[in-house]
Amino acid sequence: MRTSIATVSLSGSLTGKLTAAARAGFDGVEIFENDLLASPLTPEEVRARCADLGLTIDLFQPMRDIEAVPEAEFARNLRRARHKFELTRRLGAETVLVCSSVSPQAVDDDALAAEQLSRLADLARESGVRVAYEALAWGRHVSTYDHAWRIVETAGHPALGTCLDSFHILSRGTDPKGIADIPGEKIFFLQLADAPLLAMDVLQWSRHYRCFPGQGGFDVAGLLHHVLRTGYDGPLSLEVFNDVFRQAEAGPTAVDARRSLLVLQEAVGRAPLPGPVVPTGVAFAELVTPDAEPLSALLGALGFTRAARHRGKPVALWEQGDARILVNTGPAVRRDGTRLAAIGLESPDPAGAARRAEALLAPVLPRRRAPGDAPLDAVAAPDGTELFFCATGRPDLPDWRSDFEDTGREAGPAHIRGIDHLALTQPWHHFDEAALFHRGVLGLRAQESVDVADPYGLMRSRAVTNPDGSVRIALTVGAAPTDHTVHAQHIALATDDVVASARRFREAGGTLLPVPANYYDDLAARFEFADGELETYRGLGILYDRDAHGVFRHCYTRTVGRVFFELVQRDDGYRGYGAANAPVRLAAQHTVRALTGG
Ligand code: MG
Ligand code: MG
């Protein structure tokens, strides 16, 4: 199916928007009049630029508040329309959008609306264009798609059809089933947008919070099913008003947008994508650092053994149980120092996983990072994290482990079982994109997003997991592009006895994040504990949470660069990540930073 995007969905100048849309692989655009007015290009030049980029102009939005008004008013509207239809013709566009009127002049008279829209369509036809009439959810008298369609049907004009907009339909809770009753050829255009489920004024909701399909709470795929059943064969067009996207770079937003349409088309059986290959575990987490010493001390105290070294690069493999951490001192390290740069995901079909990622517009990384490396399939996530698809120990496939030679060091008794979860911070304007990427590309399930108070703002967090929980990634973003600890990433290590693990860590010289006494006073009020239990937690800085399934106990190391470790004990099927404790943790980290000047 053809894909299109409204210029209003992207930031920048009109030409920048067009370039971004073309690069992301869109077939066409909807041009918003404001983008044209602000452009130094003539309509003919815009048309030529689009043609050069391989884009069609699928829709022009220059007019509103046309219909169901007194005759004198309508005559003025027709005069305005004549200019705009001529402009549409010069752009080489075929369809003009007219939204249902919000004017106080408009009267509640469907027959008058149909008659005037019919005359408008006559005029459109003279310029060789056609009119798509759309019900705004806040239209004065026409606010539902079926009402708009009844008026179009009454008018019975060949140059008048309807435009369906998933936001206007789904935000009102209207049943989209009736769409199937509209003849496909009378649906002149289809605009798609999702939105988070919010209880707010629908106009504000629409203008500021729309997002790409799959990023919000609407059943956009369900709606599209009904539209496709009519035989509609026009483009799928994204019309997304979003405060964040308006500020973000147009290029990545356009890629995110087109990925959302690919996932959506797949959901309705219209995109021949390679199927998802869901990862089955975490092979490794790779940290890059300018100085291996602080990390080595920390990993040693946590009970890890430096088990192997890379044959050709300054990369050490630290192991304990099934937890494997690579410490890479090789690449030029950015200003922010130590960070989590790559994740190895165990994959039943690494090449298939990479093919799907590529089909969903993820940048594919060179299979060998250096001569002599095992050829691994890898892609970049939107935040730049490198994702390697691994087949650890599979004799039939390249094994990353073969790039390493053992140090011969004896491993101590393992009290860490493996990696419980990884927490990645996202660039603040790419949070929704990150969730869609991990869901669509990797086939992980997204959980509800939660907001957490940080001393300097709000943090949003959303976890994505595989079915058995052996891959858990918490995606986190600050509410603003600030430079606080919200930028910290962490690796959570699973233990069966967090108290014993915390004690061992301390005895080995490790320092745990101190937790304020007030926190434990509150815990005592909320939960019942066995004698001495709470004192033990208090003494070590262990945090506690409980959900409908089980119990979570966890504590934190100090931060190195941007990275810290968490020790977690997850009992009886607890599903969360201790989000209730995150504000205390964040405040404690801020206190440590203030004290150490870090
Ligand atoms: Mg619309
Ligand atoms: Mg955590």
From TrEMBL:
EC code: 4.2.1.118
Sites where the protein binds Mg(2+): 421, 490, 566
SUPFAM superfamilies attached to this UniProt entry: Glyoxalase/Bleomycin resistance protein/Dihydroxybiphenyl dioxygenase (SSF54593), Xylose isomerase-like (SSF51658)
Reactions catalysed: 3-dehydroshikimate = 3,4-dihydroxybenzoate + H2O
Family listed: Belongs to the bacterial two-domain DSD family.
InterPro entries in alphabetical order: DSD, Glyas_Bleomycin-R_OHBP_Dase, Glyas_Fos-R_dOase_dom, IolE/XylAMocC-like, VOC_core, Xyl_isomerase-like_sf, Xyl_isomerase-like_TIM-brl
The entry's keywords: Dioxygenase, Lyase, Metal-binding, Oxidoreductase
Lineage start: Bacteria, Bacillati, Actinomycetota, Actinomycetes, Kitasatosporales
Annotated protein name in UniProt: 3-dehydroshikimate dehydratase
Pfam families: AP_endonuc_2, Glyoxalase, Glyoxalase_5
Domain VOC: 281-392, 418-558
Iron-sulfur recorded as keyword: no
Cofactor requirement: a divalent metal cation
Metal-binding listed as a keyword: yes
Task of the protein: Catalyzes the conversion of 3-dehydroshikimate to protocatechuate (3,4-dihydroxybenzoate), a common intermediate of quinate and shikimate degradation pathways.
Gene source species: Streptomyces djakartensis
Alphabetical list of HAMAP family matching this protein: DSD
